[in-house]
Amino acid sequence: MVERTLFRTHPLEDRIPALDAAETAGLRIEAEAEVAAVDLRVDLAGPGVDAAARALGARLPTQPNTWTRTHDGQAVWLGPDEWLVTSVAARPHEWEHALIAAVAPYGGAAVDVSAQRTSIRVSGARARELLSFGCALDLRPASFPVGSAAQTTVGLAGVLLLALGADDFRLLVRPSFAGHLADWLLDAALEFRADPTARPTAAAFP
């Protein structure tokens, strides 16, 4: 029997060349490397929240629709007792086990959801304008400042949208919708190209 090794590929592997080619002065769209992600549940009124803070190296955000930095990732508010917690250094199952060990004694829970979302980064002076083409939220800095997070839609794809900087956004999308979202962003970005007829030369528009 021949043993076969399976290698994981990025959900946007075939679109990365087109995303790179779409960069203009004032706009960049990139497929980000995958990271470990855990759905964390813990009672804010109990001692579990302090245990989570020790494991994360930072307090969990308590204000709705916000995110905070941890020692090696982000903690994103999803609900009154739920957060998405990422780590760029840990392996998915190790990250899950570390957080389970921290909060389980206090009735908390942690589940590995690393394969549940793919990350697309949109940055540059035109980033807010581009996203506004397909998002119903008011994305002006006064309404969606740095540190904001929202579960919304962009180009009809459900996303978790984070404002990382004044002109820097992370879109977390289901892998099954990642290709559609990347294609929508590429198509919308044509608005900002010097020659709108010069489409990126890659298989991004099957």
TrEMBL record:
Classification via Pfam families: SoxG (PF04268)
Top-level taxon of origin: Bacteria
InterPro entries the UniProt entry points to: SoxG, TrmE/GcvT-like
Name by which UniProt lists this protein: Sarcosine oxidase subunit gamma
